Amino acid sequence: MEAASISHGAAHAGEHHGPPAANRSSRVEPALLGMLLFIISEIMVFGAFFTAYFFIRIASGDPWPAHGTTLPVQVAGVNTAILVSSSFTIHWAQTSIKNGNRFGLKAGMLTTFLLGCTFLFIQINEYANIGFAPQDAAQQTIFYSLTGLHGAHVFIGLLLLLFVTIRSFRGHYTPEEHRGVEVPGIYWHFVDIMWLVVYTTVYIL
Amino acid sequence: MAAKLRAPGFYRAGWMMVGGALFATALTWLVRMATGHSTFQHFISPDAILSVSLLAVPLAFLIGIGGFDYWFYWAIGRPTRPEDHSSHGAYTWKDYFRINTDHKVIGIQYLVNSFFFLLVGGLLALLMRAQLAQPGSHFVDANTFNGLFSVHASLLIFLFMVPVFAGFGNYVIPLMIGAPDMAFPRLNALSFWLLPVAGMIMLGSFFAPGGAFADGWTAYAPLSVNAPIGQTFFSIGVQFAGASSIMTALNFLVTIITMRAPGMSFFRMPLLVWANFATSLLVVIATPFIAASQFFVLLDRALGFNFFNAAKGGDVLMYQHVFWFYSHPAVYIMILPGFGIISEVIAVKSRKPIFGYRMMAFSLLAIVGLGFTVWAHHMFTSGMAAWIRIPMAITTAIIAVPTGIKVFSWLATLWRGVLHLDTAMLFALGFITTFTLGGISGIMLAMVPFDIHVSATYFIVAHIHYVLFGGSLMTIFAGVYYWFPKMTGRMYDERLGKWHFWTTFIFVNLTFAPMHVLGLQGMPRRVATYAAQFADLNLFISIASFGLGATTLLFVYNMVTSWRGGPRAVSNPWRALTLEWQVSSPPPIFNFDRLPTVVGGPYEYGVPGAVHGIFAPAPAPTVAGAGAGVVSAPSQ
Questions:
Q1: Do B59 and B177 belong together in one domain?
Q2: Is A124 on the interface with B (CB under 8 A)?
Q3: Which of A20, A23, A56 sits opposite B314 (nearest CB)?
Q4: Domain housing B47
Q5: What is the pTM for the complete model shown?
Q6: Structural domain of residue A164, as residue ranges?
Q7: What is the ipTM of this complex?
Q8: Would an 8 Å CB–CB cutoff place B292 in contact with chain A?
């Protein structure tokens, strides 16, 4: 056993109570690949909700938005700008840690987190003031469902961002080891791009 | 005691579940009070508390048993730590009842859990057959009968067919590709514990006011929206089972892509690994659709949304589209890993290279692709636009082609092979027979006029049981007998195994073949009684089904006694080439003391000097065959 572990190379010479290190048969990081596959699943969840949207809005031919309701396109547009800018600030944080700039990492993560919170806050305000409820008719149901599903994803993304922000303030991550910023970052970009799709289909078209 | 209450385990899960129920009560009470008397008459609503509890209590259980411990630890900003293997392995039976990160333990947890639900689901079926033995009998009332067939189907699909293959995959895939474990061991442990939770929720629906969910495993809206509270048990149970299969599939894909041993290229992977790769793609892409369909139902039921309320612009047909967009690929999720098992068994037991290895792999991928294009063939009589039927009938007929490629490739593998007709091989051959019969009735159902004629009759019941019982379950039995020595380190009783096969094979056909006739004569499915003209055949089916149930006892007896006291198994009783047979039975706790190097294909049986994997540091392939540690194909 000792001989076997030595033959694996100097890096593992001292440790032999665990299994031999797995062979890496792909250049892709396992954590990265896992996140990408998870995002495929997430896209399909949205796909199912868009199927419902298709049937309720297009197949039925009912008016959109329902009679007597208006959608706050401008407010949601400002909100879109806020969410899109958060994608840039998280990119700033990631670039900073790659270059060893800890201040940039902390400031970037904190800004991203606060921008995300602002988005969610405006979204909740929109619900409170929009003047209709999901129980009114199918159009309102799917409006709340799509924006609400996205809001739930923003919430999950914000939790991840919060954990990353705490970690960056506690001194984790180095220029060599920053997967912990990269992988939640991909999820945040996904949430952001998904909002562009939701905003376009629900508010603009 | 205080330490026990704090440490992950059943004690902590117990008090946390109580906490979850209290949380659900408080939450619904607060929300209803905040909304005020204009909306709600009573602030305490048993239905609302039960609905929220169904989410909160299982989550509390999972937290209590320790499924999320590491992520909580990570979330508060502690340094990451790689999986330290401290919860690896099983030394006593108690280790199977905790969060365990060893893929071999998880595989056995999956298998035993699945077979438990197979027995429960089978008992429910026997209760149904008791009711159907005579027309107009009152063994159970009609509502209970509806609950019986609904829970029967849901348990056997979501708690048996889908996870049992994940169990085989968990146990065998890392061994087959030469990996020490799965890519995400903690996620793997969590994904198992979601399953007993889902099963208990579904079984618990029998105790719900108004009875179990009673509209079949398809739970069509708007019936499911207006059904009693038992329906919520289905909608939420499916969420847990679905989350489990997505996690496992993701884990399989990452493991297969990133953790193969040196030299294990994609086209040197055993076909079981290929099959699980294809299945996992299906799961990752399709499963979110059933999750969403049940979200819709839950939102309609609990919060008064209008997805399926036609009076307010909702679309009922949309449920069927979303549901079948998952549930048709799901039938491939329930058979593709079985194809993989059969490929292993048939190649090993006929001592020949598998015929058309690459076509076998490509046909799996073709089924994955085509599987997403046929969903509406379940909806020919649903009232959807009539023109959709024709393209769906054509794609359905086309999907038989890759399946046919596989069947003929197995037959060609058998051709002039040296057949070892032991239990696993018998089940493989039985599978080819009954599955082909079920496939042929599937092609018949693809034809629109025929489908309209037999829609919602016993012909459908016959078809689904020929492909799932005669097909999938036969592959599962073949797999259990094939890997039993590897998993337990014991040999099973071959004589009892053969008895099990022959009785199963005969009673499957006696039970399900007459259902074709009943269906053609027009007996509707999902009814608690029927016209007197169908009485004779139904009595025959009921008697045969009790025989079929009895054969399972043979299997259980064989497994239990052999696991406890069977003769010790050698490391490679079948003289197989794939890597899992090159380690001891059962395998060492970390699978391999040193990683194998793969130098050839996995099925080169009967090829002189052929080598699949070696444990020595990789020499040039030309000198393989000499020296210790080299695995060469045993000659005939």
A1: no
A2: no
A3: A56
A4: 2-75
A5: 0.93
A6: 29-204
A7: 0.91
A8: yes
